[in-house]
Amino acid sequence: MLKAIKIIALFIIKYLGGFWLARKLNKGNTCVLCYHGFAYDDEYLFRPKLFMRPESFKKRLAWLQDSPYKIVSLSEAVNNQHNGNLVVLTMDDGWAGTKELVGDTLAEHNFPLMLYVTSYYVQKQGAVINVALAYILWKSAGKTLVIDEPILSITKEYVISAENTVSIVTELCQLIDGVASFSVRQRVLLDIAKQLQVNLHSNGQLMFRSLNTEELTALQQSNVDIQLHTHRHCSPQNEQEFKLEVSQNIDYLQQLELINTLQHFCYPSGEYYLPQLPWLKECGVVTATTVSSGMLTSDTDRLQIPRFLDGADVHQIEFEAELCGLSSAIRKLASFK
Questions:
Q1: Angle (CA) 78 121 277, round 5°
Q2: What pLDDT shows up at residue 80?
Q3: Which CATH superfamily is domain 21-124+230-254+262-335 in?
Q4: What is the pLDDT of residue 336?
Q5: Which of 97, 131, 93 is nearest to 115 (CA)?
Q6: Exposed e or buried b for every residue in 109-147, given b needs 16+ CB within 10 A?
Q7: CA 335 to CA 326: how far, in whole Å?
Q8: % of the chain exceeding 90 in pLDDT
Q9: How far apart are CA 32 and CA 310, in angstroms?
Q10: Chain CA centroid to CA 274, Å
């Protein structure tokens, strides 16, 4: 109900010229958009901020093509080379659907896009276990899962519900992560999917996998700039461990035939701590993006760049309100109370 009221209010504000005024006031500022993966099936219902329908993404880019906004690279926006209304496209993680499902859309528009890649699953090539497992259980509410797996040292029965899914995923992931062999961990995951009768394949391809090296290399031909997102998608608070994550990410991605220098970073899941900022500088990083909403301005800390997380649950009018800066202004006013 509240969302419906918000949407109606935004339509009225737009009709009265509020979006036009916001664009005027925000000239020279940038809305940095954040995307993640794309849905082969119903993943957009499972996690709408993580998986968007390919057709929705295609409509977004088509709208941007004809919009009053200039699509620029993050480097251009940071260097403030324009005084218009700017938009930057970024994408996190490196899900395979980026090539399989929206590769043609990216090639058609050829907008500059920064793709932050977690390299562990690029290297290993299997389903990302915590996300795939959460999806399996999400589809299995009301079913019973029996775990009788010697390698996990557990025999247990779970009656799956919407209320206990998170706790089951957490418990099982801790057990699975304790298995040394990657192939065995994948086998355990697929056994759970088979028992609960959830298909993790689409058109013969494994779902919830990362792009492989060939796909990453090919995406660069569509103006995609491959950049850093740690090796294992984590954000350690220990300096040595954090720098190791970044350096392993750099070392792996440098094996690809990269067009651009690796100097841009995205905090995994938006998790970051102020002591990490100088550590990033020591690793050669010049920009880092968060998932905090807001506009990129000339005063923004280049290692704490805000972004708007677009997704399947975002209405077009909400999307436009973010681009023009109106939503950011409303949030600032609300924070003064």
A1: 35
A2: 74
A3: Glycoside hydrolase/deacetylase (3.20.20.370)
A4: 59
A5: 93
A6: bebbbbbbbbbbbbeeebbbbbbbbbbbbbbbeebebeb
A7: 14
A8: 87
A9: 10
A10: 21
Q: What is the DSSP-derived secondary structure letter of residue 150?
A: G
Q: How far is the C-alpha of 61 from the C-alpha of 254, rounded, in Å?
A: 29
Distance separating alpha carbons of residues 149 and 184, to the nearest angstrom: 11
Indicate whether 63 pLDDT > 60: yes
Number of H helices, E strands in the chain: 16, 14
CB 112 within 8 A of CB 87: no
pTM of the shown model: 0.94
In the chain, domain spans: 21-124+230-254+262-335, 129-202
Which residues face 92 on adjacent strands?
A: 116
Cβ partners under 8 Å of residue 325, min gap 6:
22, 23, 25, 26, 29, 31, 295
Maximum separation of any 2 CA atoms in the chain, in Å: 66
Of 319, 328, 271, the closest CA to residue 294 belongs to: 328
| Amino acid at position 222, single letter | S
Exposure string for 247-267, b = 16+ CB within 10 A, e = fewer: ebbbebbeebeeeeebebbbb
